């Protein structure tokens, strides 16, 4: 699968994970789906989509035993700023991954709230539109708000900062990995010059 006309993303099997801390702080083992990310002329990157034995699940830019030479902001993103994958309601077949963005730096931080216009500018309007064109995939506010905010990629609101999340069906393996790339990895790749910065191109309102 080609993303943004620049990435090639492919699944590369399963690997066991030793006992480690999950997002909640519990310690257990698990199994990771391995995804390889290839960017022309750059070292290959690896994402682990791990299902832990206690039922948790998360995605992370995995740090292999030998890390190819790369700029510090990208190297330091390895094994940090995981994205948890959760059921929207217990027992449902719909999952969500939070639209938190890894802010580039030697020690990457996380920004959680954006107007939809700002979130689109960081992650890419065309990329989010393509992702949400998949069956039963939707970008929305992460939580039900007392004053609802409408998330619309054809007319992104630019007044209220909210936490966004991507909702997708449980059987969809690829969508959360792509969303993780767009929100957790791509901002750093742009920061270090491995990808061009996006041109701000908002929809034309009729």
How would you characterize the overall build of this protein?
- The chain has 206 residues and is α+β, with helices and mostly antiparallel strands.
- The protein contains four helices and eleven strands; from the N terminus they run βββββαββββααββα.
- It has a nine-stranded antiparallel β-sheet, with helices on one face. A two-stranded antiparallel ribbon has the order 8-9.
- The longest helix has 18 residues.
- The protein is globular, with a radius of gyration of 17 Å.
- The protein starts with a strand and ends in a 15-residue tail after the last helix.
Summary?
With 206 residues, the chain is α+β, with helices and mostly antiparallel strands. It has helices spanning 72-75, 116-123, 125-132, 174-191, and strands at residues 2-3, 7-21, 27-39, 45-52, 57-61, 83-87, 94-98, 101-103, 109-111, 138-141, 164-169.
Beta-strand segment tally: 11
Low-confidence stretches: none
Query: Quick one: overall form?
Result: globular
Tell me the β content: 25-35%
Counting H and I runs of at least 4 residues, what is the number of helices?
4
N- and C-termini, Cα separation: 34 Å
Structural category:
alpha+beta
Name the assembly state: single chain
How are the SSEs ordered, and which strands pair?
Layout lengths: L1 E2 L3 E15 L5 E13 L5 E8 L4 E5 L10 H4 L7 E5 L6 E5 L2 E3 L5 E3 L4 H8 L1 H8 L5 E4 L22 E6 L4 H18 L15
Antiparallel strand pairs: 1-2, 2-3, 3-4, 4-5, 5-6, 6-7, 7-11, 8-9, 10-11
